Amino acid sequence: MSSRPWQILLLALAVSATSVFAQKKYDPGATDTEIKIGQTMPYSGPASAYGTIGRVETAYFQKVNDEGGVNGRKLKLLSLDDGYSPPKTVEMTRKLVEQDEVLFIFQPLGTAANSAIHKYLNAKKVPHLFVASGATKWADPKNFPWTMGWNPSYQTEGRIYAKDILARHPNGKIAVLYQNDDYGKDLLKGLKDGLGDKAKMIVMEASYEVSDPTVDSQIVSLKGSGADIFVNIATPKFAALAIRKVYDIGWKPVHYLNNVSLSVGSVLTPAGLEKSVGLITTGYLKDATDVAWTNDPAMKDFIAFMKKYYPEGNVSDSSNVYGYSAAQALVQVLKQCGDNLTRENVMRQAANLKNFQLPLARPGVAVNTSPADFNVFKSMQLQRFDGKQWVGFGDAVH
Amino acid sequence: MKARSIAIAILLVAACVLPFVVSNFRVFQFTMVLVYAIVLLGLNMLTGYNGQISLGHGAFYAIGAYTAAILMDRFGAPYWLTVPVSALVCLVAGFLFGLPALRLEKVYLALATFALGVALPQILKSKGLEHWTGGVQGIVITKPDAPFGIPLSADQWLYFFTLAVTVAMFVLAVNLLRGRIGLAMVAIRDHPLAASAMGIDIAMYKSLTFGVSAMYTGVGGALGAIAVQFVAPDSFTAFLSIAFLVGIVVGGLATIEGALFGALFIQFVPNVADQVSKAAPWAIYGIVLIAFMYLMPGGVSGVIRQAWRRKNV
């Protein structure tokens, strides 16, 4: 009988030894057969058009599971409706973390919604991965080591315009129109940071409020400044008004239009396609409506995937390309994790993406992250409007 | 009367045991139920007892929430102090809004309050207030821990704090509604002309009811902000005001206990709807709502009261 404690001790040793040899390490949400992932999405409410991102991601994980999963584990995405209301995001995120015990949170959507759970997830040390929002604050590894954004930040975009201006129009004079809120100021800051000690090239800045009826007077005074480069940091309605006014008063600057307003249907057509010729903007993902990608094998794969796994989804909706790409990046992170599925390792691998080329990212736009740099996209490709569609030119700009 | 006391005692004991038998996340959900119950009680005074429809109580909820958040974030005020301050701010705001608005009757008043509910989120984003409200980004606040080393989690402590406030607010409401003031409110609802012939100052009572109702909503808003730890304009859309109205009708108009049933409905039915269908959660919500109205025209309280009466006959 006296040997009993020894047997137990040996057994305990044996058990712990096997787990060391197999090197399988799990945090809540991961097992030998499954990885549980949490998400909140606006399936209802004012932003429900974005709900398709959650649906296309669910469909993509189904495809991965049908092909055997990631390292033999099936992906289970618990995607809950938050109606675009931050209190609901908090409630649902707490449910996912505390009750459903997911390994991490993936692509919750909306700046306010993510602000509401930012502190909570970092305090709980639960990865808050690939946040679906363009705010710059999601890339702050020093203060928020558990949060990583997805969209190229507005500051990144501003810096890219600065780089192109310095390379091609080093002696130009710049006029800027911007929306007077966090987004407009963020983009303007990127532009100034990118110009560095050449920031004096900006001869005039004019802002507008979303409640303004037009931006006509701003455009007229910007023209009066004598600038020959115009950076248009405006949301779709105001961008269209600005494009038209610039053309109508006979101002012919090099015209940079920010990425949020690149839609041909809702911005350039109302402004006038002939008035939009020569506009320059940035892009990081391919667009299914762009004829340049008609014969692209990656685009063909995407269309085949949509047909099989998400037939009710709209192929030409850029949100579907967005969700499909984010899901692929996540699968890459989980592949790199191997059998070490701890929350810490998920974060470490997300911060260790090296030159990862997404199939639907534009040529040269690779994903690169490091422990000190949580910006997923740092490069974008410039594109010019030819009167019918956007045509990419040059290499990706960092 | 005796049976009612027993029922209340059982309910209180259950409410005290609850946070020890469920997870912290559920405790948080039930804290929100208590928060909504306070709000619904306030709205029910206005709509159920006094007959004035408000489609803008989300605005008072937002004012209460922002008062608490700004006090904690900018002035480092302790969380418990924000509740009476929010109550006072909303009492004054409600009374002042009530003075001119009460010249409007029925649906016209509903529209005026609706305007308030729609406008407030945008006002919160405006440039003049941005320094205080944090604009679209909102304000993040820290959840208080239990004081004096009481061995409770932050969620459990906040639940008990909210429960204490809820009980106090309910006791206050019972005293208010069962007394002269309550009778006057009901009299104004049922027959304003007769009420004024009895010497009731209708305008004053209506404005005061509006103020007290806004005060309850503000207290709920402050507690809700502390529980959620975040306020932003997007949290207080016009839909919130409508959800409150749904809550009092489902719970039972002009009943005190109806606030609890309505709060449970607001908190849990949307979650159930989301589980049933991702494609159309609000369609499911709508079907549940229609079923409720069809089967329980007097709200949940109506059904319970009816059953009670039948048993005693």
Features:
heterodimer; A: 398 residues; alpha/beta; Rossmann fold; 2 domains; 4-stranded parallel sheet; 12 helices; elongated; B: 313 residues; mainly alpha; 2 strands
Could you please describe the fold and organization of this structure?
By secondary structure, chain A is an alpha/beta fold. Chain A folds into two domains: 34-152 and 295-378, Response regulator (Rossmann fold); 155-283, 3-Layer(aba) Sandwich (Rossmann fold), CATH 3.40.50.2300. Chain A has twelve helices and 14 strands. In chain A, the strands form four sheets. In chain A, strands 3-2-4-5-6 form a five-stranded parallel beta sheet, with helices on both faces. In chain A, strands 8-7-9-10 form a four-stranded parallel beta sheet, sandwiched between helices. A three-stranded antiparallel beta sheet of chain A has the order 11-13-14. In chain A, helix 4 (111-124) links the parallel strand 4 and strand 5. In chain A, helix 2 (51-66) crosses helix 11, helix 5 packs parallel to helix 6 and helix 8 (236-248) packs parallel to helix 9. The radius of gyration of chain A is 24 Å and the shape is elongated. The relative contact order of chain A is 0.13. Chain B has helices at 2-21, 24-49, 57-75, 79-101, 106-125, 127-133, 154-178, 180-190, 192-197, 202-228, 238-251, 258-276, 281-295, 299-312, and strands spanning 139-140, 230-231. A two-stranded antiparallel ribbon of chain B has the order 1-2.
